[in-house]
Amino acid sequence: MVVAMLFVILFFICIRGIKVINWEFLTTMPKDGMTKGGILPAIIGTFTLMFGSMLFAFPIGVLSGIYTNEYLKESWFKSFLRSMTNNLAGIPSIVFGLFGMALFVNKLHFGDSIIAGSLTLGLLALPVIIRTTEEALKSVDMSLRTGSYALGATKLQTIRRVVLPVAFPNILTGLILSMGRVSGETAPILFTVAAYFLPKLPHSIFDQVMALPYHLYVLTTSGTDIEATRPIAYGTAFVLIMIVLIFNLMANWLRRYFSKKVKMN
């Protein structure tokens, strides 16, 4: 029943959204109060925020996961860190948006900008990447570590040359799935970066951008002509679903590819 409901929702969006998909819709600027034109700024803005957030979250998340799993011994402190990480992953996204507005927009004076939105989305994705990295490292057999130590390798060399290559497919999967998740978030960018109508591309990290989820929200709730923008809203929803689907399929393909490569080596 759940799978059937999912397919009904996807079919409902796709059958209405695919009608407006064409080259002009994907590559031109919005016009006439978003009743005409395309969604290019929203597509570029979404990808900019996705990659910007991962530049911040991925290295910190992976290093945190390595430290927690490989260096930190079992103790109340380790259990406390894991509990707080899980709690952080369960915080509503709008709370991250309010925090990002208070810290990055107001306190650090970044204003409504790409860097403020990317850092906020990075905080949202950080606990997921940490937990994914931990689970990926746990899946590496302990015999690989002990064998490396027996050959005289240090702990750092073992992690770099033995543990991480084996765990890399699952870590990469977590990264791509996190990118898919942040691509559909509206609340964190609502207060930090998203613009209502901005028919131009960003030129620096301190510019505002349009984004697909916020663009969809505006079209369906507060557009200048909701009836006229309804087809564009369905088209925007279709593009957003396709982006998430492509990232999920890419994650599965990369995991299989690197898993086979590790086994061959």
List the helices and strands and how they pair.
Blueprint: H1 2-17, H2 23-27, E1 30-31, E2 36-37, H3 40-71, H4 76-89, H5 93-107, H6 114-138, H7 142-150, H8 155-183, H9 187-190, H10 212-221, H11 226-264
Antiparallel strand pairs: 1-2
Structure explained in plain terms:
By secondary structure, the protein is mainly alpha-helical. The chain has helices spanning 2-17, 23-27, 40-71, 76-89, 93-107, 114-138, 142-150, 155-183, 187-190, 212-221, 226-264; strands spanning 30-31, 36-37. It has one domain (33-264): Orthogonal Bundle (MetI-like fold). It is built from 11 helices and 2 strands; from the N terminus they run ααββααααααααα. Strands 1-2 form a two-stranded antiparallel ribbon. Helix 4 (76-89) crosses helix 6, helix 6 crosses helix 8 and helix 7 runs antiparallel to helix 8 (155-183). The N and C termini lie far apart (43 Å). The mean pLDDT is 86.
